[in-house]
Amino acid sequence: MKRWLSALVLTFWVALAFAQSGGAKLPKPGAKDLCPVCGMLVSKYPNWVATIVYKDGHAHHFDGAKDMFKFWFEPAKYVAGHKRQDMAAIWVTDFYNLKLVDARKAWYVIGSDVLGPMGHEFVPLVTKEDADDFLKEHKGKRIFTFEQVTLDLPLKLDDGKF
Fold first, then answer.
1. In the prediction, which pLDDT does 61 show?
2. Is pTM beyond 0.85 here?
3. 52 pairs with which residues across the strands?
4. How confident is the model at residue 134, as a pLDDT?
5. So what's the pLDDT on residue 152?
């Protein structure tokens, strides 16, 4: 119980520090950083970057929220020894303002006419109103919260069966 509470407090403080700094301390993907899920160079797609930061400070960058979700559900499948409980913060890039937002608070549209680096993608948006507007403007199929995304959904996006 004490270990769980300590982890919760640490996660809160890391998230608070990032929020207060406007994400300024969040590491940006370097020119050679590869997405641990698909192997793409992440820095080539700055409008789609998603990042998971660990409690020890290291980070993994992704070329989109879809690969970030794949990693979120099965981190050890992509990087040996990595566990979800060691993650301190998760960030995605808002489609409209291109700023990093807390992935757990973002809204995600799927099935739109906007494609990401790996095809069909979760399009992150900072507010429900933005998600509703994006859904209408870009012929989206559905809106999800972070908690509503299931393990199979990123794979369905890959297959175009959403």
1. 97
2. no
3. 60, 90
4. 98
5. 96
User: What is the structure's pLDDT at 6?
Assistant: 41
The Cα–Cα gap between 65 and 34 comes to 14
pLDDT below 70 — which residues of the chain? 1-25
Residue from 100, 149, 152 nearest 126 by CA: 100
| 101 Cα distance to chain centroid | 9
Give me the pLDDT at residue 1, please.
53
Q: Which residues of 31-45 are buried (b: 16+ CB within 10 A; e: fewer)?
A: eebbbbbbebbbbeb
**Letter for the amino acid at 97?**
N
The 10 Å Cβ neighbour count of residue 93 is 22
Burial 124-154, CB ≥16 within 10 A → b, else e? bbbeeebbeebbeeeebeebbebeebeeebb
Residues 106 and 94 sit within 8 Å (Cβ to Cβ):
yes
Q: Which amino acid is at 125?
A: L
CA angle 50, 117, 97 (to 5 degrees): 50
CB 40 within 8 Å of CB 11 = no
pLDDT at residue 7, as a whole number: 40
Q: Are 87 and 39 in contact (CB under 8 A)?
A: no
